[in-house]
Design brief:
Blueprint: E1 19-23, E2 27-28, E3 32-38, E4 46-52, E5 59-66, E6 73-83, H1 111-130, E7 138-139, E8 151-154, E9 164-167, E10 174-177, E11 183-189, H2 190-193, E12 197-202, E13 205-210, H3 221-233, E14 240-244, H4 250-259, E15 264-269, H5 272-281, E16 288-292, H6 295-301, E17 309-312, H7 320-329, E18 334-339, H8 342-354, E19 357-365, E20 375-382
Parallel strand pairs: 4-6, 7-19, 8-11, 14-15, 14-17, 15-16, 17-18
Antiparallel strand pairs: 1-5, 2-3, 3-4, 5-6, 9-10, 12-13, 18-20, 19-20
Helix pairs in contact: 1-8, 3-4, 6-7, 7-8
């Protein structure tokens, strides 16, 4: 729910705590908007400030939360709204806002406007990093209650005096809370539940997964992503498929059903416990196998043969160039790329384009309401 941060080395006098009245500019990747303030002693030079809790077009008072004289940019919170946007709403959570819980970025924004902001971020990342103009709109997914009560697993902090807590934004400081409004009523607290296995169900198939292992936290996410991947790839009987960063085999299982007995599915995953669960989840499919190890290392030594299809679901940093080129070397007719970070996706799509694969389709889903995060699924095909 909160981001760990590295302490940056100070570059001159600190400006933390100073306040400026600014007009908020466009949304940026990361849950903040861009604003500019004059640089002291310069008639025309400005400094970028990444402002949380503001909206494009608003006039706000921003308080600097990180920034020294020598920094290229500062960070700040909109602590007072002079001219509010029509998209601004009162945050439903009492712990959201400047200096409070860092888990949500957009509690002050109406749900439709949240999706418009995320759409703008996806388009901007593709324009900047892939040099592509993409026609995409962030879509709502069933399973939340007006953007709340969706998170099925939560990593709470447990203060020594008891109760629950959350981290401040970019801080280890703890904010005591009574409840998290984006958590589902039966959400699992992963900070105390350990690795005990549990069962998840997708389209009437049961999947074994560790409680603290990777599984989509929005209840509508697994079925939505499976349906989109299968629609994009249109697997045919007898085809061979790779499921990379496969987790417990969610996509591999549905691929195995589609390609059937003449086909073949290989799931590759670096976490050994997830691989053990994947073997259980794929046990009924004789032509499905699991490879243990980091994707780049496994592909460097194994499965060096053509594959028809690839599902690519990497962590936030993306697949990166080495893995993309290893995939291209297997000459798949289609790649379905599931991404939780639009910047990483855009960079990797640009690499695919260099290697002769074009972006055929792109969808984006609001699997993390009230936050700046967005999930994308891209279809890449040989040009």
């Amino acid at each position: 729910m909160a981001r760990n941060t590295r302490q940056r080395q100070a570059r001159g006098a600190s400006h933390v705590g100073e306040r400026f009245t600014v007009t908020v500019g466009p949304i940026a990747h990361g849950g903040h908007c861009v604003a500019r303030i004059p640089v002291s002693g310069s008639a025309d030079e400005t400094r970028v400030v990444f402002v949380r809790h503001g909206l494009p077009g608003e006039e706000v008072v921003v308080e600097i939360t990180e920034g020294t004289e020598g920094d290229r940019f500062w960070r700040g919170d909109a602590v007072s709204i002079v001219t509010p946007s029509s998209d601004r709403v009162e945050a439903p959570c009492p712990y959201a806002g400047p200096g409070a819980c860092g888990g949500c970025d957009f509690q002050h924004v109406s749900l439709p406007a949240q999706r418009e902001l995320k759409t703008a971020v996806v388009r901007e990342q593709f324009r900047r990093l892939a040099k592509m103009d993409v026609d995409v709109e962030v879509e709502a997914v069933p399973g939340d209650v007006h953007g709340l009560a969706w998170r099925t697993r939560v990593d709470y902090v447990h203060p020594e005096g008891g109760g629950l807590g959350m981290r401040k934004h970019r801080s280890r400081s703890v904010i005591p809370i009574d409840a998290c409004l984006i958590a589902a009523p039966d959400a699992i607290d992963t900070s105390v539940s350990g690795s005990a296995p549990r069962i998840e169900s997708v389209h009437d198939r049961e999947f074994q997964v560790a409680t603290d292992g990777f599984w989509q936290v929005h209840p509508g996410a697994p079925s939505t992503l499976v349906d989109t991947v299968l629609d994009f790839l249109d697997p045919q009987a007898g085809e061979k498929a790779l499921d990379l960063y496969a987790g417990v085999g969610l996509f591999a299982r549905f691929l195995a059903e589609r390609v059937g007995e003449p086909g073949r599915v290989v799931a590759i995953e670096g976490n050994s416990l997830a691989c053990a669960h994947a073997r259980e989840n794929l046990a009924e499919h004789r032509r499905a196998s699991v490879g243990v190890g980091t994707v780049d290392r496994v592909l460097a030594t194994s499965y060096d043969e053509p594959f028809d299809l690839v599902v690519l679901d990497p962590p936030r940093e993306g697949a990166r160039r080495k893995v993309v080129l290893q995939i291209v070397d297997r000459a798949p007719r289609a790649v379905a790329y599931v991404a939780c970070d639009p910047a990483s996706l855009a960079r990797d799509v640009a690499t695919f384009a260099e290697a002769g694969y074009r972006l055929e389709r792109l969808r984006a889903f609001d699997l993390f309401p009230m936050t700046s995060h967005v999930e994308c699924v891209a279809l890449l095909v040989r040009d």
